[in-house]
Design a protein that fits this description.
alpha+beta, PUA domain-like, Trna Endonuclease, Chain: A, domain 1, 2 domains, 8-stranded mixed sheet, elongated
């Protein structure tokens, strides 16, 4: 298996056929002779417990996420997958008022969390690898296809309060942070025979380790304290293609982006009000990696001067802290035309030493613009249409809005109140 490879997962399972409808057959590639089929009927799917030389273990736990169900009664949350950087945040299987520890999936992952975070290598050796799949739409079919997203371990588990916007009620669940492990030593191929060997009651754990990925062996020996050395980290070309900057066809993100564009693009005046959404999205995105972000204000009558909103990043604390001014520009532009380089140039021209620029668009950035930013080493954060729509969908779920329209109408009411006629440096003195 390779990360990103899509498998057919039909309703009727068949472990003998290598391909179904032109796609590799999940049941064929995960088949273990004389054992039950590996199933993905739930979000969290432990492979049956076995007794191996007096040691009881779960050979693996298979997880799946269903982006098309986000916000539904089945999935009133959103999992976050950043496989290229080796991180997944995954929510457990409680959806209502019951005790989250009693849910089968949560119970299985919490047990593994103890094993994965043990300081004893022999204990870690008995832990289950967590294997990640994502349900993906193919040819307008939203069911029956799963994408392999690697394997890894649990680095954190915490109780969280979530909101089910359909039932308008809060509930307690668990969130799990997974580290996706590196398989570069295996030429980016995951050998399922390792999982089958863990299902083989005649083999010792040490024998199964012989064909384990090198990252797993390293982790068993060194534990989570040294996880960064084996966390997956893909060094990509920094120039993103157009397709990587636009939501996938027929996706929820594309529908959201279209709604955003339609809401703000009616008149020149309404396009300017997009600045408020851009400021909110910038704050939401930056806070994922830096809790010290402070949203400032929308600039008054900036026209096309290159400054539409102001923010601040606080780094450190006390005497040794630093405050970085953030200048943002927002453009509500056609989804199918790249943003203009002249607009970005105006933003860059306004930056002073030590300041950070942010450019938010409903569109995307051409190769030429990206290369120019990289070559000139501009301190500029680019938020394209795909990122914009993803952040908006996350905010809607987190804050319990019914739909995109309700959210946009709500924040638009606050637009006038967010406008201030102030110099950017004044945010340095705001508490």
């Amino acid at each position: 298996m390779r990360i990103g490879q899509v498998f057919r997962y039909p309703k009727q399972k068949n472990r003998k056929r290598e391909k179904i409808d032109g796609f590799p057959n999940f049941s064929f590639y995960t088949n273990c002779p004389n054992e039950n089929l590996v199933l993905l009927e739930k979000g969290i799917n432990p492979i049956g417990l076995i007794k191996n030389k007096s040691i009881h273990l779960t050979p693996a736990i298979i997880t799946s996420t269903s982006p098309h169900k986000i916000g539904s009664a089945d999935t009133p949350w959103q999992d976050f997958y950043n496989v290229s950087k080796g991180h997944i945040r995954y929510f457990g299987d409680n959806k209502g008022s019951s005790n989250p520890e009693n849910k089968a999936g949560n119970k299985a992952l919490l047990k593994q969390f103890e094993l994965h975070n043990s300081s004893d290598s022999d204990t870690r050796k008995t832990a289950s690898p967590i294997i990640f799949f994502k349900r993906v739409p193919i040819n307008n079919a939203i069911k029956g296809f799963v994408e392999f997203n690697g394997f890894g371990v649990i680095t954190n588990a915490e109780r969280v309060v979530q909101h089910n916007r359909r039932s308008n009620s809060d509930f307690v669940n668990y969130s799990f942070d997974f580290a996706v492990l590196d398989i570069s030593q295996e030429n980016e191929e995951f050998n399922w025979e390792w999982i089958n060997s863990r299902r083989d009651r005649s083999k010792t754990l040490d024998e199964t380790m012989d064909i384990a990925p090198s990252a797993w062996k390293y982790w068993v020996k060194n534990g989570n304290g040294d996880i960064e050395k084996v966390r997956r980290n893909v060094s990509k070309l920094q120039v993103l293609s157009t397709s990587e900057q636009k939501p996938e066809k027929n996706s929820r993100d594309l529908k959201t982006l279209q709604e955003i564009y339609n809401f703000y693009s009616k008149t020149p005046a309404s396009k300017k009000r997009f600045e408020n959404l851009a400021s909110i999205v910038t704050e939401h995105l930056i806070r994922k990696s830096s809790s010290g972000y402070k949203s400032g204000w929308i600039t008054k009558g900036s026209g096309d001067s290159g400054i539409d909103f102001i923010g601040r990043m606080d780094i450190g604390s006390g005497f040794g802290s630093a405050k970085v001014i953030v200048l943002g520009q927002a453009k509500c532009e056609s989804l199918n035309s790249p943003t203009g380089g002249t607009h970005i140039a105006r933003t860059v021209a306004k930056l002073k030493r030590g300041w950070l620029g942010v450019y938010v668009t409903t569109s995307y950035f051409s190769d030429k613009v990206q290369i120019e930013i990289l070559e000139d080493k501009y301190p500029l954060l680019l938020i394209n249409g795909r990122i914009l729509s993803q952040e908006v969908n996350e905010i809607i779920l987190e804050q319990g809005y019914e739909n995109v329209k309700e959210y946009l109408e709500d924040i638009d009411k606050r637009y006038e109140g967010a406008i201030k006629f102030r110099d950017p440096e004044e945010i340095l003195f705001d508490r």
